Amino acid sequence: MASVQLPVQINTQILSKPNLSVYYPVVSGLSNPAAQQRINAAIVALVNQLISQQGYPQNPQTQVMGWYEIKTNERGILSLSIGNYAYPPMAAHGMTYIKSLTFDIQTGHAYSLADLFKPGSDYVKVLSGLIQKQITQRNIPLLNGFKGIRPDQDFYIADKALVVYFQLYEITPYYVGLPMFPISVFELQNILAENGPLSIMATND
User: Fold this and answer.
1) Of these four, 11, 55, 161, 169, which has the most CB atoms within 10 Å of its CB?
2) pTM of the model
3) Would you call 103 exposed, middle or buried from its count of C-beta atoms within 10 A (0-12, 13-18, 19+)?
């Protein structure tokens, strides 16, 4: 019987500067200090990347708010999203970015979308087909049609679902927000990487 993987301990830190208030998670208590350091370094790097992407370093008058959401914290898998909203001076409206990270807590490895699937499985085609079906069913307005996902499309894992999503303006008008497409792991079982995070979430033990 496999040993039970307890949830990771998450603490909240705040990065506070003039016009900037960003909350982000810090992992603690892992049995592998090197894995813990890798995870926390990746989180901080992403937080700083989003702040830079919003243009705050170049224009500190930009108002920036940041937050995070834990999507999965079980079975040795930690999946989370880092959100960032910024409103530059004189802008017509603010801009939101959300990026996600999914980790193996034993090693600190951050999974790419490709890591979730068997090599050569053409996961891009499979996921694109399932998302196209949802776009039609949900009557989601598009900017220039849907040509499929990128191989490194944004995603997170939430319980027994893979959630693939797009940034503002990536495929839809601004008013739609960030379109998100939950896909059951059971729809993907034929192409899941053995012992990968989605395969782990698909089991019932």
Assistant:
1) 161
2) 0.94
3) buried
